[in-house]
Amino acid sequence: MSGSNRYAIDDVAFIGRTANEYERMFDLDLSAWEDESILDCPGGACAFVATANDRGIDAVGADLMYGMSPGDLRQRCEADIDTAIAGFDGVEDQFVWSFYDDVADVRDHWTAAYEQFIEDYADYHDTDRYVEARLPDLPFDDDSFSLVLSAHLLFLYMDDLSHEFHEESLLELARVASDEVRTFPLARFDGKRYPRLDDLRETLADAGYDTELRSVPFRFLRDEPEMLVIEA
User: Fold this and answer.
1) Whole-number Å distance between alpha carbons of 92 and 86
2) CB atoms closer than 10 angstroms to residue 179
3) Residue 10, in any domain of the structure
4) What is the layout of strands, in order, in the sheet containing 130-132?
5) Which of 5, 13, 25, 133 is the residue whose CA sits 20 to 30 A from 67?
6) Residue 120: which domain range?
7) What's the confidence (pLDDT) of residue 41?
8) Within-domain flag for 94
9) What tens-digit pLDDT sequence spans the chain (232 residues)?
10) How far apart are CA 103 and CA 5, in angstroms?
11) What whole-number distance in Å separates Cα of residue 11 and Cα of residue 107?
12) Is residue 4 assigned to a domain?
């Protein structure tokens, strides 16, 4: 943990969100994407890929941790949840408690997500459903996915990831999307929005991509609840 008076962790946590959280974070109606393809990158310990495939969507997760065995990844999930939950101690007022009731409810959601993920990962980790990959270089062809979702890496870890990494990663996510890229959140844990968001949007525009900031029905950080949408 960091010694600051705001929520912070020393490394990118391998935790996940439920499909219900994803639907709200990305203002996503899964029924509208049946028979389409969706990439979740980085997928982390999220339950989205498992749920989406159950609903008739060709969903793929990409994450640098997906080369690990199911057993080792379960241990990593459990340890990272403990670390991430401990980080709320004394800084609960930095968050908006509307979707989640309290810190215990956050743990319940994150635990439910990783348990569903691990079960699916154990069955499909040696298939093309879970791909070991690291931004900003993805092993997919251009326009491989109708929709690309990217949560809780870009912007959230702005203090540790360079502006160039954000540029290259967004351009790479746009490259493999045929319709849209949706990225959430746009701020770090204390609600500070990424200060060079306009520069990133200009870079994307120069590369031929339209962008917009779109409101979403989910709020936890004290930033405006918006996602960055890139029209591929």
Assistant:
1) 11
2) 16
3) no
4) 130-132, 58-63, 37-40, 145-151, 177-184, 226-231, 210-215
5) 25
6) 19-231
7) 98
8) yes
9) 444 577 867 678 899 999 999 999 999 999 999 999 999 999 999 999 999 999 999 999 999 999 999 999 999 999 999 999 999 999 999 999 999 999 999 999 999 999 999 999 999 999 999 999 999 999 999 999 999 999 999 999 999 999 999 999 999 999 999 999 999 999 998 899 999 999 999 999 999 999 999 999 999 999 999 999 999 8
10) 17
11) 18
12) no
Query: How many other CB atoms sit within 10 Å of the CB of residue 96?
Result: 15
The two three-digit tokens of residue 189, written as one number: 């844990």
Give the pTM.
Answer: 0.95
pLDDT of residue 25: 97
Q: Exposure of 113 by Cβ count < 10 A (0-12 exposed, 13-18 middle, 19+ buried)?
A: buried
CA atoms within 13 A on the CB side of 58: 9
Number of domains in the chain: 1
Cα radius of gyration (the chain): 17
Task: Identify the CATH number of the domain in which residue 118 sits.
Answer: 3.40.50.150
Q: Are 154 and 169 within 8 A, CB to CB?
A: yes
83 within a domain of the structure (yes/no): yes
One-character DSSP codes across 6-58: S---SS-------HHHHHHHTT--GGGGTTSEEEESS-TT-SHHHHHHHTT-E
